[in-house]
Specification:
By secondary structure, this protein is α/β, with parallel strands linked by helices. Helix content is 33%, strand content 22%. It folds into 4 domains: 2-124, Methylthiotransferase, N-terminal domain (Rossmann fold); 129-256, Transcription Regulator spoIIAA (2-Layer Sandwich); 259-376, Transcription Regulator spoIIAA (2-Layer Sandwich); 381-442, OB fold (Dihydrolipoamide Acetyltransferase, E2P). The protein has helices at residues 11-26, 49-62, 79-84, 87-91, 107-116, 164-168, 176-188, 215-223, 243-251, 268-274, 280-293, 312-324, 352-375, and strands at 2-7, 30-31, 39-44, 73-78, 95-99, 122-124, 146-150, 152-153, 172-173, 193-197, 230-234, 258-260, 298-305, 329-334, 381-390, 399-403, 409-413, 425-433, 438-442. Helix 12 packs parallel to helix 13. The chain binds S-adenosyl-L-homocysteine, iron/sulfur cluster and FE3-S4 cluster.
Length: 444
Amino acid sequence: MKFHVLTFGCQMNAADSGWLGRSMAQLGWQEVPADEAQVFIVNTCSVRDKPEQKVYSLLGRLAAHLERDPAIFCAVGGCVAQQVGAGLWDRFPFVRLVFGTDGISQAPQALVRLAEEPQLRLSLLDFTQSYVERDPALPATAVSPRAFVNIMQGCDNFCTYCIVPHVRGRQKSRSSASVLAECRALAASGVKDITLLGQNVNSFGLDAGGDGMSFPQLLRAVAAMEGVSRLRFTTSHPKDLADDVIAAFGELPNLSPSLHLPVQSGSDAVLKRMGRKYTLAQYLSKVEALYGARPELSLSTDFIVGFPGETEADFRASLELIRTARFETSFSFLYSDRPGVASAKMEPKVPDDIKSWRLAELQALQNDQQQAMLNELAGSMAQVLVEGPGARRDSEEPAWKGRDEAGRVVNFAAAPSAHDLTGRIVPVRIIQAKKHSLWGEQSS
Ligand code: SAH
Ligand code: SF4
Ligand code: F3S
C-alpha cells in the first residue's frame, strides 16, 4: 500500500509520526506524495482551537482524493483523535482508524488489517496503565544526524488551561533500560544529536512506571555514551527543574547550551490562576542559576497572552520578563478555551482584539531582542552539525545548512575543497545574523 503522513503539533507528534512511517515501511508499505496515496495518516494536535479546526479542514480537503480512488481511506491519530474519538468517522466516513496516543503502538497492525478488510473500522483509544514499548523500527542507517527519543507519555500537571493531560493521559515513564538501549542504537547508527522527549521530562521516573532512575541520572547516562556529541531535552516544567539538572549544564560538555523553559506569564496573579505552582521570583532564580552554570545558555520559553482576567499590568509583567530573563526565542499564543479544562469557566475573558494587540506587542519585543542577541554572535566561532545543502545568499556556489551547539540554524559557505559535509561537525565563523538564523563561513 502507498501511504502519506501529515503531522500537526509538537515534537512528540513529529516523533510518533516518524516511528509510524518507519513501521509501515518495514511492513512493506511505501511512503509517497499525497496525490499518489491510498492511505492518509493524519497525526493531530488539540492544544488550541486553531490546530483542531485545521484537522477538520484538512480532512475535508482529503475527501476530494476519493474521486481519484473511492477505496482511499484515512487514519486519524494523536490528540484530536483522542478527544473526539469515533465522532470523527460520523463526520468523515472515509476515516477508518482513530488511534490515541497510547493506541499508536498497535496502529501498524491495524492499518494492515484495514487494507485487507475494506468494510472494517477500528478505534484504538484506550489509555494504558504503563508506557507501551513500540517495535524499534529503526532505519538501517541514520537518515538524519539528529534524533528524538521518547522517555515518557502524558502529563499529571493539569495546568488549568491545558488539554494535554486529558488527551495524552497520566504521566507514564518509559523504562530507563529501553531509553538507554534506543539511544545507544541511534548513536551506533551515526546519530550525533539526541533530544529526550516528554511533556514534563524532569519528572521522569517519578510515576508508577519509574524504575529508580531519575531524570538527572538518565541525562548523565546518555551524555556518557560514545557518539553522542549533542544532547538536549524538552519540555521542562520550571517547578520540576532540579538543581542537579541545572548543575549538569556546567558539567556535561555535550549537553547543548539551550533550554526551553515555558513560563506562560510574568505575573504571579496569572501564574496562580494557571495552576503553574511557581512564582516569578522562583522562576527567575532558576534562570539565574542556569546562566551561572552555563553563561552562553540560549533560553527559550512559551507565553500565553490573554489568559482570563489578564490585566494590562499582568501583560506588562510578561514584557518585562522577556528582558530580565534574556529569552532568545519565545513561542507565544493567544489564550484559547479548550473543552473540559478548568480555565474555560474562568472570567472575565479578554476580548479578542485586546489579546491580538498584546500578542503583536510581545512578539515585536521578542523579535527585536532575538535580533540583538544574534547580532552579538557575529565574529564568533560555532561548531555546526551539518544537516544538508543550504541556500546561498549571493551566488551559485555550494552552501550548507546545520545547527550550532545551541540549536540555532546556521547557513554557511564551505571551504573550496569540501565534499559532502552532511552529518559532520565543522567549525564555522559567524559573519552575520539573518532573521532567526545565522550566516557564516567554514573555518579550517
Ligand atoms: N508540556 C509542555 C507544553 C504543552 S503545550 C509544557 O508544559 O511546557 C505547548 C504550549 O501551548 C504551552 O506551553 C502553552 O504555552 C500553550 N498552550 C497550552 N494550552 C493552551 C491554551 N489553552 N491556549 C493557548 N495556549 C496554550
Ligand atoms: Fe499542559 Fe501543564 Fe502538562 Fe505542560 S505541564 S502539558 S502545560 S498540563
Ligand atoms: Fe498538541 Fe497533543 Fe502535542 S495537544 S502540543 S500534539 S501533546
